[in-house]
Design goal:
Blueprint (H helix, E strand, L loop, with lengths): L1 H30 L2 E2 L2 E2 L3 H13 L4 H16 L5 H28 L9 H14 L1 H13 L8 H31 L3 H65 L6 H14 L3 E8 L3 H8 L13 E3 L5 E3 L11 E3 L1 H4 L11 H13 L3 E2 L3 E2 L5 E10 L15 E10 H13 L4 E6 L7 E6 L10 H8 L5 E7 L2 E8 L7 H58 L4 H16 L3 E7 L5 E9 L4 E3 L3 E3 L4 H9 L3 E3 L12 H8 L1 E11 L2 E11 L7 H88 L8 H32 L7 E4 H19 L2 E5 L4 E4 L1 H17 L5 E9 L2 E7 L34 H12 L3 E7 L3 E9 L7 E2 L2 E2 L1
Parallel strand pairs: 23-25
Antiparallel strand pairs: 1-2, 3-6, 3-10, 4-5, 7-9, 8-9, 9-10, 11-12, 11-14, 13-14, 15-16, 15-21, 16-17, 16-18, 19-20, 20-21, 22-24, 25-26, 26-28, 27-28, 29-30
Helix pairs in contact: 1-2, 1-3, 2-4, 2-7, 3-4, 4-5, 4-6, 6-7, 7-8, 8-9, 8-13, 8-15, 15-16, 15-19, 16-19, 19-20, 20-23, 21-22, 22-23
The protein binds adenosine-5'-diphosphate.
């Protein structure tokens, strides 16, 4: 089914192509714009090529058939049937061969696809120009061999044919291809420019040839008008010759005239008609009259003159027996033609034939051209003379009435001289033919025979002569049909037309060329833009993907570098892409990674030293990178030429620096092999970006190394700190244990120390009081010292033990409601004796207050302060105040004693510190009282102690303790 449809589809297309070819051809033939035998624009040629390009070689068949029909039609009637068919078939074969070859060549050069460049466009036009000669050549050849075309017209016909085919193909095919590819292909631009170029060429050629055609028409018109003048002149010359002959004939019809009279009359005629070679009179003589008439005739030398016949060779022979003779009696001019006198006109067949016709018709008749005795060609015209012609005008003329013939010899060369020669100067081809017998035309005169040879086959030559532009005129002269054929010698056209022709060709073709260049230039720039966009897109995509990978990548450095150079090589389409690193002293470049695209392999380890290539290193260290389009001659890379560039066939290099923290550490090197390459701006930018990514990769690597080192150092430090902390904790624990041991030791020692001391104090006191008997003064003094020292020691031990207990956390605090006034009075009582001893006054202003505190410890503190106030005062009054502030009791003990200087204030509250004064020696003290007081105040009573003092003015010590302390306070786990 499909096959049937396929076959019938092809059949339909074939029929459509044949019909289109035939119709367009017929229309073009009807328009008939052409020179020679061809048309100036032959659109069918384009249709044929288009059909074969679109539907394959099978389309040559319909083209062949349609072309056969067209050529048959054009030449029908001008050739015999067999010749006509031959001409049509072979010409059509040429017409069909042409599109076959053209489509083959176009397809082979891939010119049936969108044209990409100006060179391709030029090749397209050239291919069609060359291919178009096929049909023109075969067609012209056929026409000339079949005698349809004159040989001198073959050039112009061929040219017109070729131009016609070329114009037709250039008009149709590019349009077809543009249309065909406009849908399937995005780049219809190129085909559009091709069709514009094609139409431009076709239009130019056609216009030029139309100019030529118009010029040709005007030339032909001019040729015809001048040729008809020639014809007219010849007609006149012939008419004049007849009328001159008539005047001689009229003089002779009835009277006998002498030779002298004849000569006189004839000279007059001959003198004004140069066409006539001679005029003669040949009377009709019977044999008897011949004797009478010629009996006395003599020549100039008095020899008797006899009439004669001419034999077949033209030699005079004695008269043959006959019933009548027409010997030439008079001839003028006599001197030149004397030899002809006596010639019997009937003896030469050509003359006799003319004479017989003249006698029958009674009108002047011309003979066939004959050879004059001198050698030139001539025509004889003979006019019969009848006796008393005017009297019996309408009577039938009889032989008896015929007196003879007046004859005139028209010499062809003279006729030509007079009528044709003036025009021969114009380089025309002129032929004068005797066409009386059409089958055997006779050439009377020809000029320009080098162009159309009049040969043995005169009829063929004649038909060839009559092809193409020519003029012909027929003359009826004395019963003979003469034909004048004139052909223009050249059809080069006028100078102005030539100028216009070449002007159009040059302007049109150069305009088309410029237009094509412009269009292709635009196309190219558009394509370059498009290519750049594509490249930029690809480069951006690559950069984006590399960046992404870079961010998420934990891959090793070398793998990352391999990925970078491979991607770069593929994106920039270079053979080799590599990363080189400078060594520490920047004197050697070592290849870290090199990728070779064609082998898809990585290499490492090459090196280049600065000693060998100082200029190259200088360019690198310069830090801006460079693009060497011609690396083998570029001053920056020429040093690498023999050792590196030539062995690897590298022609272009694009280097970008790799940096780390601003320093050049290496180079990203792109190496192109093959023909020189121009590195485009976008490629350089892309390479720079890759250089930056490489730099980033190196920086990331070094940062990662640094981070790793830091991390390890931190871990080490942490471990050490942990170790040290543990050591400290152990040491602290040990110290705490030791401290506790010490305090325990002291606490436990206190009892052991105090018991014997109390015994010493008690017994020495008893002894001093004299209870054990009177003492010697010396004994008493020494014993008192023992007593005092023991008391001092007891106080010291008591304080030390108290402090130790507090510090060791062994003191238990017992909070209870305490009457402040009672407590103060009780304590004052303890120092009363000492105060009174020193005569110190007392002011006590205590608000009634019950507070919760440790009675024993508060008493201890107050006692300490009061005893100090007494001890370090020599006069004045003791003042004791109390007030309440923010839930705290402020208890002030003020004296007017020696006071404390600001510098010594720092030593206050320090253990074993006693401040220098004149009272220090005579006042007993341990230097622990204030220290202990503060310890009790802060550590046990949750309070504080302050002092303000002036030297010589006195001191104020203030206890600050909470009225209600926080109940649950732990001292080393012991609840207070
Ligand atoms: P001491 O047993 O020597 O009195 P303290 O610790 O009680 O030890 O006092 C320390 C020192 O502070 C005393 O030696 C004394 O010089 C000075 N001092 C204490 N109270 C007063 C005061 N009310 N006036 C002047 N100096 C004082």
């Amino acid at each position: 089914m499909f096959q049937i449809w396929g076959v019938s589809r092809h059949l339909l297309i074939a029929i459509a192509v044949a019909a289109l070819y035939f119709v367009v051809s017929s229309l073009t033939v009807m328009l008939n714009i052409g020179i020679g035998g061809a048309n100036l624009v032959w659109i069918p040629a384009g249709i044929a090529v288009a059909a074969v390009l679109l539907h394959g070689n099978r389309m040559t068949l319909p083209v062949f058939l349609a072309a056969s029909a067209i050529h048959y039609m054009i030449h029908a009637g001008s050739l015999p049937q067999a010749q006509l068919v031959l001409l049509a078939v072979i010409t059509a074969a040429g017409t069909a061969l042409q599109p076959y070859l053209l489509s083959f060549w176009l397809k082979r050069q891939k010119l049936d696809a969108p044209i990409q460049s100006f060179t391709q466009c030029l090749r397209f036009v050239l291919t069609i120009s060359v291919g178009s000669v096929v049909s023109a050549s075969i067609g012209s050849l056929m026409q000339i061999t079949q005698d349809v075309l004159a040989s001198e017209d073959v050039g112009v016909t061929w040219l017109t044919w070729w131009v016609g085919d070329l114009s037709g193909i250039l008009t149709v095919v590019p349009l077809l291809l543009a249309f065909r590819h406009s849908k399937s292909h995005q780049r219809s631009w190129s085909m559009l420019s091709l069709s514009i170029t094609g139409i431009g060429c076709a239009f130019t050629l056609t216009s030029a040839f139309i100019v030529k055609h118009l010029d040709h028409i005007s030339q032909a018109r001019e040729f015809h008008s001048s040729s008809s003048v020639i014809g007219e002149v010849m007609q006149r010359a012939l008419d004049l010759s007849l009328s001159d002959l008539r005047s001689v004939q009229m003089a002779l019809y009835d009277i006998e005239i002498s030779n002298a009279e004849f000569q006189e009359m004839s000279i007059d005629v001959l003198s004004h008609n140069p066409v006539l070679r001679s005029v003669s009179w040949a009377p009709r003589l019977t044999p008897s009259q011949l004797l009478l008439d010629w009996g006395n005739a003599t020549n100039d030398d008095n020899t008797p003159r006899r009439p004669f016949d001419l034999d077949n060779e033209g030699n005079p022979v004695p008269l043959a027996e006959a019933t009548e003779y027409f010997p030439l009696r008079f001839i003028a001019p006599e001197t030149e033609s004397r030899a002809a006198i006596g010639l019997n006109l009937l003896s030469t067949p050509k003359r006799r034939e003319a004479l017989e016709r003249a006698r029958q018709l009674g009108r002047p008749q011309a003979s066939e051209a004959f050879q004059l005795i001198e050698g030139s060609m001539a025509i004889g015209v003979y006019w019969p003379v009848y006796r008393n012609e005017f009297r019996h005008q309408h009577k039938e003329r009889t032989t008896l009435d015929l007196r003879g013939f007046v004859g005139a010899t028209i010499e062809i060369s003279r006729l030509a001289d007079q009528t044709l020669k003036p025009f021969i100067a114009n380089h025309r081809g002129l032929w004068l033919l005797d066409m009386t017998r059409p089958a055997q035309p006779q050439v009377l005169f020809q000029n320009g025979s080098h162009r159309v040879a009049i040969d043995a086959n005169l009829a063929t030559s004649l038909s060839r002569l009559r092809k193409g532009l020519h003029f012909e005129r027929q003359f009826d002269f004395g019963g003979r049909t003469l034909l004048l054929v004139i052909r223009p010698d050249q059809t080069n056209g006028s100078l102005q037309a030539q100028g216009q022709f070449w002007g159009i060709i040059i302007i049109g073709l150069s305009g088309t060329l410029l237009m094509a260049l412009y269009l292709f230039g635009r196309q190219r720039s558009e394509e370059e833009l498009r290519a750049r966009d594509t490249r930029l897109l690809a480069q951006n995509a690559v950069l984006a993907s590399l960046n992404k990978e870079e961010l998420s990548d934990r891959t090793p450095l070398d793998e990352k570098l391999r990925q970078l150079i491979k991607t770069t090589a593929e994106t920039l389409d270079v053979e080799r892409c590599s990363i080189w690193l400078l060594d520490s002293d920047k004197q050697t470049l070592v290849c870290r990674q090199l990728y070779t695209t064609s082998r898809q392999r990585y290499e490492t380890g090459l090196s280049i030293s600065a000693q060998d290539c100082p200029q190259y290193f200088a360019s690198l260290v310069d830090g801006r990178g460079f693009a060497a389009d011609r690396a083998q001659t570029d001053p920056r890379t020429v040093e690498l030429r023999d050792s590196y560039l030539i062995p690897h066939n590298i022609t272009a290099i694009l280097d970008v620096p790799i940096r780390s923290e601003g320093d050049i550490i290496g180079v990203l090197c792109n190496e192109h092999i093959g023909p020189p390459r121009v590195w485009l701006a976008d490629e350089q930018t892309f390479a720079s970006s890759i250089g930056d990514l490489s730099s980033l990769a190196f920086e990331t690597e070094s940062r990662r190394n640094a981070e790793q080192a830091l991390r390890e150092a931190n871990q080490l430090l942490e471990k050490r700190i942990e170790e040290r902390t543990e050591d400290l904790r152990v040491a602290n624990e040990r110290l705490r244990q030791l401290d506790q041991l010490k305090s325990m030791f002291i606490a436990s020692m206190s009892h052991e120390l105090r018991t014997p001391l109390n015994s010493i104090i008690g017994f020495s006191g008893v002894i001093l009081q004299g209870m054990s008997g009177p003492l010697q003064p010396k004994q008493e003094e020494q014993l008192r010292r023992v007593y005092n020292s023991a008391r001092h020691l007891l106080a010291l031990i008591t304080d030390v033990i108290d402090i130790s207990k507090i510090e060791a956390g062994y003191v238990e605090v017992y909070f209870e409601p305490v009457e402040l006034q009672a407590l103060v009075e009780e304590t004052l009582g303890q120092v009363q004796a000492m105060r009174e001893e020193k005569h110190l006054g007392l002011e006590c202003r205590i608000d009634p207050l019950t507070l919760t505190t440790d009675r024993k410890r508060l008493t201890q503190c107050l006692l300490n302060l009061l005893s100090n106030a007494v001890k370090y005062s020599e006069q004045g009054t003791l003042r004791i105040n109390s007030r309440i502030e923010e839930g705290h009791l402020l208890l002030e003990v003020a004296d007017e004693g020696i006071g404390i200087s600001a510098t010594q204030m720092e030593k206050l509250f320090q253990p074993f510190e006693r401040i220098d004064s004149h009272l220090r020696i005579k006042t007993p003290g341990t230097g622990l009282g204030l220290y202990l007081t503060r310890k009790i105040c802060t550590d046990l009573l949750q309070g504080d102690i302050f002092v303000r003092s002036q030297v010589g003015q006195g001191s104020v010590f203030t206890l600050r303790i909470p009225i209600t302390p926080q109940c649950a306070i732990k001292h080393d786990g012991v609840e207070a």
